[in-house]
Amino acid sequence: MTENEPPPVAGLLLAAGGGRRLGGRPKALLPHRGRPLVEYAAGVLRAAGCARVHVVLGAGAEAVRARAELGDCVLVENPDWADGMGSSLRAGLDSLAGTGARAALVFLVDQPGIGAEAVARVLAAYEDESSLVSAAYDGVRGHPVLFGAAHWAGIAATATGDRGARAYLREHQEAIGLVECGDVAQPYDIDTEADLAHLE
Fold first, then answer.
1. What pLDDT shows up at residue 34?
2. Is 58 in contact with 18 (CB distance < 8 Å)?
3. What is the pLDDT of residue 2?
4. Contact of 191 with 22, CB cutoff 8 Å
5. So what's the pLDDT on residue 159?
6. What are the distances in angstroms from CA 132 to CA 13, 39, 174?
7. Within the chain, which residues score under 70 in pLDDT?
8. Which residues pair with 10 in a beta bridge?
9. What is the largest CA-CA distance in the chain?
10. 18 has which bridge partners?
11. Best CA proximity match to 110, nearest among 38, 55, 181
12. What CA–CA distance (Å, rounded) separates 122 from 65?
């Protein structure tokens, strides 16, 4: 990679969710270790080695911009965030078109149990634009997921509702490289009031 060449893998943080089961509190703004969760998650991507990070915002986007320090990230607003994760994934991939990125490492804001070590493992498995890599926990596919640019159009075409890239990954199961992360991360989601106990 020359000095002017962009890093091949961009971090793509999906942080648009409205926290429906959390009484409508945007997940991006939940406090974790003294800062909004979105800021923590962007920091994980940076610490893992993603020099470029795009953050997809939706619910409470203005408040997130005001309260989270994301100055070194590209902020992407998804006006259709209420349609589900699929729309945020499409918006994020769209924002990477033309940037020179050859892969997107997709990370979810509501999984603070997954830290930089697990993300770095997935990042290290990148080979080229055809790469399709997923973290696994005891052999079961989870997040984060790395999508080479050759897959972006196919993912965008099938990403609907809350399923994100699930349909695409199911169709291309044979091509997915699994990277075991169960020894260094816990893939729980912050979805309900009870899950808030995971936040620090």
1. 93
2. yes
3. 46
4. yes
5. 87
6. 17, 26, 10
7. 1-6
8. 104
9. 48
10. none
11. 38
12. 28
9-15 and 53-57 as β-strands: parallel, antiparallel, unpaired? parallel
CA angle 183, 126, 12 (to 5 degrees): 80
How far apart, in whole angstroms, are the C-alpha atoms of residue 15 and residue 85?
A: 9
Q: Strands 53-57 and 74-77: what pairing?
A: parallel
Phi first, then psi, for residue 124 (nearest 5°) are: -65, -20
For the record, the structure tokens of 55 come out as 């953050």
pLDDT at 130: 97
Could you give the CA distance from residue 60 to residue 48 in angstroms, rounded to a whole number? 27
Residue type, 152: W
DSSP-assigned letters across all residues of the chain: --TTSPPSEEEEEEE----GGGTS--GGGSEETTEEHHHHHHHHHHHHT-SSEEEEEBTBHHHHHHHS--TTSEEEE-TTGGG-HHHHHHHHHHHHTTTT-SEEEEEETT-TTS-HHHHHHHHHT--STT-EEEEEETTEEEEEEEEEGGGHHHHHHH--TT-TTHHHHHHTGGGPEEEE-TTT-------SGGGGGG--
Distances in whole angstroms, Cα of residue 111 to Cα of each of 14, 47, 87, 172, 176? 11, 16, 19, 24, 21
CB atoms within 10 A of CB 115: 18
CB contact at 8 A, 59 and 21: no
